[in-house]
Structures
1.
Amino acid sequence: MASVITCDAAVAWGPGELLVLEKVEVDPPMAMEIRVKIICTSLCRSDINQWENKAQSSLFPRIFGHEASGIVESVGEGVTEFDVGDHVLTVFIGECTACKHCLSGKSNMCQVLGLERRGVMHGDQKTRFSIKGKPVFHYCAVSSFSEYTVVHSGCAVKLDHDVPMDRICLLSCGAAAGLGAAWNVANISEGSSVVIYGLGTVAQGAKLRGASLVIGVDINPEKYEKAKAFGITEFINPSDCDEPIQQVIKRLTDGGADYSFECIGDTKMVSTALQSCCDAWGMTVTLGVPKGNPEVSAHYGMLLSGKTLKGSLFGGWKPKSDLPLLVAKYLNKDIEIDNLVTHDLPLKDINTAFELMKKGKCLRCVIHMPK
Ligand SMILES: [Zn+2]
Ligand SMILES: [Zn+2]
């Protein structure tokens, strides 16, 4: 029987407050859970958005992080899929494989292990972390900014031992989400025009589908060179434009792009993205997690014209069913992940990673746990 582990974790004590390395107690895994020794975890914009979210101040102290690779340290009662020593990828939306949604073939929104917003584990609605008896909240039921964490066995995917742990963690969220938004949700067709607000792997997904024009919109020109490698063909910095960005896009695309993607989590930008795609069949896919106001406004006439607005969480991928295919594509070099990593930092420098991402200075920063 596993016992409590005391280890280092980067704890956020309040919204927007610098993270502090603390000794935390990590409970043994309960039934159907596994405890994982995290090896690498990458920082995602949604970690930042939720860390800054003052509306959730009751969910602190909290351990963020949801893109991670690690090794199973112990397994809870009833777990047959994993053994101690297995390499795993954690995922922020699980797949129970048995609920109505998992069986539908239409969605990856598992009804049992869906996006966890209360800072606790899905099962008993309690935390597995504490500091001197005080509970520490989880994030997305993953909380990977800790040397050890507990996840539901439905929120982990087994990896072969030869998969590089320091890069594959990106498939936990960011890299997979962008590819899935392009392939599963938008289903981009060959020769089409695409505009992407906030650069990321959507561009690679568009390129691999044969899009002819892929416009990246971002305020940071330093990202352009990296973005080009992923398939961005035109780069627009809104700060350099003296007319609304949607007008620029309309001019470049003869009336609007076939597809537009909002990857930032700015709901005003969703309206801009909708205005940037063409009447009739234009499709806007939104995959950013909203920072503040979650309301979206759009002129009804745009929808009457036939435009569609679709949301994409984890790119429509069902983790257990689909992630092994993406991992194989990565190993085959059919998809590129390594180039997305602009920084590698140890856990103790996690605040630097937050700062880099907040300032838009990095695409992905991988945090390495102490050996
Ligand atoms: Zn399910
Ligand atoms: Zn993420």
2.
Amino acid sequence: MENVLALEQLSPDAAVRKTASMQDSLADRSRLHDVIVYGEQEPAGNAESQDNPDHVLLETPHGEIRFTSPIINAAGPRHEGISNFDDLGQSESGAIVLKTATLVGTSGNPEPRYSPPGEFHEGALNAMGLPNLGYEVYAEEVPRLKETYRKPVFASISGKKPGDNATMIRRFTEKGVDAIEINGSCQNIHRNGPMLANDPVALARELHECREATDKPLGVKLPAYADAHYFEAIAAVLLEGEVDFITAINTVGPSLKVDYQVARTAMAAMSGYGGLSGEPIRPIAIANVHKLYELIGETIPIIGVGGISQGWHALEHFEAGASVAALATAFMEEGARVFERIWRELLTEIDGRSVEEIRGSLAVHPEEAVPAS
Ligand SMILES: Cc1cc2nc3c(=O)[nH]c(=O)nc-3n(C[C@H](O)[C@H](O)[C@H](O)COP(=O)(O)O)c2cc1C
């Protein structure tokens, strides 16, 4: 508790200096983590986070994932090279989530393919098209990243044809990755049919094949579902027992940003269409997290993503049912220091409560109890 009290009593500048000095010490990080996850419970000691048996946020049938903070990066942004993963390792992100990999590396879509949030907070738009170095390059980095930074390393994969995902999963498993997220919801690649997570039959088949390829925690990243029917159809597939966690949501699309003065799309890739991210999608993300929490939350933990750029945004995700909160656009815009800022803001918001206490605590506004006349 001592660290969180000290932080709250400091002026903002002093708090920044204090928390910056904390980054130097894994032991301090470990104590802060205790406060977030276990509230009033006594810190478990100075053991490094990955070795501390109390530092478990996600317990799955295929093992525990021990995060060093409940604020992590979402797959994707700042993908250009391996050094970006080192930035994540050195930051306060509770995990290192690798760029979504395909079997063969690709440079993605042509530029411009990212439009930043802008002064009116209209959100970021991207049609990156999964530029990545190919899964083998990322898999080779897993042991070094784990050893150096002692936090969980997640692979993110997106196979283009049958069998790709299983091939990638086997290699990441051999290299000791902590968890694997199947990106079933990328907006920005050309395909003939619906995205994987919009096709319950294809999703069930794919998850079954992927499950057979690994004994590591396996998750799937979902899109924003706009039709209530989909939540139930997808929940039924997820409850078949193949996945250990889900990540919700990916970017929202197809979306289109325009430069109205010249009547032109803001991006060139994908005819200007792309996936919307950042603050405007937070209510959509919260709805998806909460809906999924109601349907599967008892069985499958949720990584909440979408519109988080402040500590209280992460709190909303926890209240809706997320166990961990992940961010992409805020990381893209602010760099790796964003994780420490949001964590510090979250500490103030939760005021000594644990994430576990907060998770799923969202109640319906009491006025709903009064029927409208
Ligand atoms: C530039 C950019 C690249 C992204 N690339 C990926 C990706 O490779 N894989 C993936 O699963 N999601 C990707 N995403 C989606 C994010 O992980 C996240 O789900 C989405 O942006 C919503 O979160 P946010 O509002 O915090 O940005 C990307 C998002 C952005 C902005």
